[in-house]
Amino acid sequence: MKQNVRYRISAAACDFCGVCVAVCPAGAIELKESSVRVLDELCVGCGDCAVMCPLGVPVREEAE
Ligand code: SF4
Ligand code: SF4
User: Fold this and answer.
1) Residues in a beta bridge with 60
2) CB proximity list for 61: less than 8 A, separation 6 or greater
3) What's 5-62's CATH class?
4) pLDDT in tens, 40-53
5) Domain coordinates in residue numbering, the chain
6) Which ligand is nearest to the CA of 2?
7) By alpha-carbon position, which residue is closest to atom 6 of ligand 1?
8) What mean pLDDT comes out for the span 13-38?
9) Ligand 2 mean position, distance from CA 61 (Å)
10) What is the mean pLDDT of the chain?
11) How far are the Cα atoms of 8, 35, 38 from residue 21, in angstroms, in the given order?
């Protein structure tokens, strides 16, 4: 995780297209058949997943 930013991906809103996995420079998105999540320890907070997701699923959060 970079600074206090992290990204959340809601599996309920996701169609598992894999775009975010393809664009993530850190290999920080784990996508399985019906689940997806950001691995916070690998995420560098670049926001590429949020920009590229066709459904706008990844959301930026300020960590506490
Ligand atoms: S790009 Fe968006 S819709 Fe596609 S797998 Fe990632 S979060 Fe889900
Ligand atoms: S913010 Fe960047 S590093 Fe983090 S999951 Fe999204 S694409 Fe990967």
Assistant:
1) 7
2) 5, 6, 7, 8
3) alpha beta
4) 999 999 999 999 99
5) 5-62
6) 2
7) 20
8) 97
9) 12
10) 94
11) 13, 12, 10
